Amino acid sequence: SGWHHVAVVAPDANVGSAPTFYINGVAVGTSNLALTSGGPASGDGSPIRVGRRADGAGQLTGAIDDVRIYGRALPASDVALLHAYTGAAVVAPQITTQPASQTVNVGASVTFTAAASGSPAPTFQWRKNGTNLAGATNAALTLPAVTAADAASYTLVATNAAGAATSNAATLTVTTSGDLTTALLNHWRMDEGTGTLAADSAGSAHGTILNGPTWTSGRIGPFALRLSAATGSHVVANQPSDAPYVGALTLAAWINVSPGAGDAVVASKVSANGAQNNPFDFIVLGSGALYFVRANGSYCAWASTATLGSGWHHVAVVAPDANVGSAPTFYINGVAVGTSNLALTSGGPASGDGS
């Protein structure tokens, strides 16, 4: 029941040549029928009737629309075009916005965007080096956390019943420019996925996982740790010397916290006796702002003027030198954000004690 597009294509004047039937733009099987009485003779100029024959047989009871007769054998592509026709002009796709080439570092998120016109509205398929990308059927293509393997040529193919159009190639160049290894003191990948060890792949401050956090899907790599205020779960990594941490310093991590859930420590080097004797604290405040305080004979505290939303974010703080009065630079998702100085209402941290 319902609307259907039907068509028959007779290939030539030979009545013995099998026609091709189409239902909703798709060719279907054909069988030859034996006539039990004389078939129609040659034409006599009778009118064409729609909805019934001249003798009253075959009365159509229902609706009919857009009836056409062509003096040629339409190919299958044209029959599909007829089925797709909506009354508007049928127009093949045209790329109206070309995707742009990009150069990014490893780990960056990349989005290619393009646009196409056409009637009916075209469907989309992104290709990488000429091969279709599974599931990439929107006008935008996002590649999160790219690797060297993502470096390629990307094109968008727009298709409708009238044809197809392919965009210009957008080249993705993935670089490893920059230095992410020199003076890397500690690197806890959090990729163990089981057990109570958080290995330090850059140093020897291997962490012990305490109070039962759970392993979850990672933002970088297969796993991450999900910590909980209810259990006080955290990681302790012993680093007996403060010496590497009293000069210029950078702390960075991917985090996924809910704003308003209270202060969340990213990394803290503090002794068991509380706020004193800690070379640094790097915290996401309950407001979503980043907070950093450090000591080197004196102390100073700073906060970012921008705040985090929900979901995964990359956060970093860069302290330029050993002078705790030198303003640090905060970064959210790789972009530097504003910094404000905070007045501490109580004694700040003194120099480190090997925590």
Protein described:
- The termini are far apart.
- Residues 274-278 and 344-353 have low confidence and may be disordered.
- Helices cover 3% and strands 38% of the residues.
- The strands form 8 sheets. Strands 5, 8, 9, 11, 12 and 13 form a 6-stranded mixed β-sheet that branches.
- With 355 residues, the chain is mainly beta.
- A hairpin with an 8-residue loop joins β14 and β15.
- It has one helix at 76-84, and strands at 6-9, 20-23, 26-28, 91-97, 102-105, 110-113, 115-119, 123-128, 131-132, 140-143, 152-160, 163-166, 170-175, 197-198, 207-210, 214-217, 223-226, 234-237, 249-256, 264-269, 280-284, 289-295, 299-307, 312-319, 329-332, 335-337, 339-342.
In short:
With 355 residues, the protein is mainly beta. It has one helix at 76-84, and strands at residues 6-9, 20-23, 26-28, 91-97, 102-105, 110-113, 115-119, 123-128, 131-132, 140-143, 152-160, 163-166, 170-175, 197-198, 207-210, 214-217, 223-226, 234-237, 249-256, 264-269, 280-284, 289-295, 299-307, 312-319, 329-332, 335-337, 339-342. It has one helix and 27 strands.
SSE layout and pairings?
Layout: E1 6-9, E2 20-23, E3 26-28, H1 76-84, E4 91-97, E5 102-105, E6 110-113, E7 115-119, E8 123-128, E9 131-132, E10 140-143, E11 152-160, E12 163-166, E13 170-175, E14 197-198, E15 207-210, E16 214-217, E17 223-226, E18 234-237, E19 249-256, E20 264-269, E21 280-284, E22 289-295, E23 299-307, E24 312-319, E25 329-332, E26 335-337, E27 339-342
Parallel strand pairs: 5-13
Antiparallel strand pairs: 1-2, 2-3, 4-7, 6-10, 8-9, 8-11, 11-12, 11-13, 14-15, 15-18, 16-17, 19-24, 20-21, 21-22, 22-23, 23-27, 24-25, 25-26
